[in-house]
Amino acid sequence: MKRTQLTQLSTMAVALLLIASCSSSSSSTATNAASDAPSLPNIAAATSVGDGEGALNIVVWAGYAENGSTDKAVDWVTPFEKASGCKVNVKVGNTSDEMVTLMKTGQYDGVSASGDATLRLIYSGDVAPVNTDLVPNYTTVSDFLKNQQWNSAGGKMYGIPHGWGANVLAYTDGKVAAPTSWGAVFDTNSPYKGTVTAYDSPIYIADAALYLMKTKPELKITNPYALDDAQFQAAVDLLKTQKPIIGEYWSDYTKAVQSFESGNTVIGTSWQVIVNLVNGGKKAKVNSIVPSEGSTGWSDTWMISSKAQHPNCMYKWMDHIISPSANAQVAEWFGEAPSQTASCAMTADKNFCTSYHATDAAYASQIHYWTTPTKSCLDGRGSICKDYAAWTQAWTEIKG
């Protein structure tokens, strides 16, 4: 779908630390962290929201807090500032690691964290539980995004769902025969050798594991983030055989766009917003699908710092950003499904929510959201799985 072009967005590169378990499927509800994980810090949620403190300092993915400076027609920050009296100061986080580091400084009131950062922030005590009763618009957020292991712990919500999406298989129209399976990027005899792309992060091992989960049932993989020695080695081996057909590994958002536009890439793992940006220009036409095996993906969460200097403004912001109008705007601008069900009536493109499966729980259940691999297996088999340190080491070996 052709969409307004983003001129400045950053990569969601993933760099995780071993801390706690979390779900890989939207159908999994939150539970306490695995036995290997540290205990939850004793931090209380707010009990009321008063007048705004006059300022709000937030760490965000680029494109999540637009004030009209990128495109005059794209602005949901200014209306918030006028209504709340909270002047919004934005710091763009280029990676989840950077966001975690920034939040540890205590200089920011909140963050738009992806699932690979949320548990690190929770268990380190850098964010506080959220009292969802103080966020009126939370009631109409999609139920399948609530109380998940990437935004909850110990029976408490630690954030407000913002938006979500799948890591899609993108391919250039007219140059690639329409694929239906992730096998298109793992075929060592691929006719597209040298123009295949893959996401540059250890978490990409989960994409290989997901493919094997569906195509090699004898491995008995039930969760692409919970891999024992044999399962892990199979995924690593698959990625090593894939490497010769890879033209580029991407982590820079804009470079992924440029690579499709130049023809250096014709097929590979992508995000819908990258597809939208390419199709917003005139250099290439790119299609995208969630293949038959399903997909990995993300679900982002607004979290409040445990050291927030402007907690009232942060609560007001969390309610604003999931209000029907604001959530519709950010979802269309960024290229993701809104968390707010009432947003679907307010999108400029009236087919937007249908295209992005915004309220489709069955579609969402196909997505295995980014999680932290831990020694204690996420599928309950005990402490026999590879932790993130092993994933990081293997990724270095895979790339050579």
- Based on CA atoms alone, the radius of gyration comes out at 20 Å
- Number of discrete domains: 2
Q: What distance lies between the first and last C-alpha atoms, to the nearest angstrom? A: 37 Å
| Assigned CATH class of the largest domain | Alpha Beta
Describe the structure.
It contains 12 helices and 14 strands. The protein is of the alpha/beta class and 400 residues long. It has 2 domains: 183 residues, D-Maltodextrin-Binding Protein, domain 2; 152 residues, Periplasmic binding protein-like II (D-Maltodextrin-Binding Protein, domain 2). The strands form 2 sheets. Strands 1, 2, 3, 4, 7, 8, 9, 10, 11, 12, 13 and 14 form a 12-stranded mixed sheet that branches. Strands 5-6 form a two-stranded antiparallel sheet. α4 packs across α5. It is globular, with a radius of gyration of 20 Å. The N terminus is likely disordered.
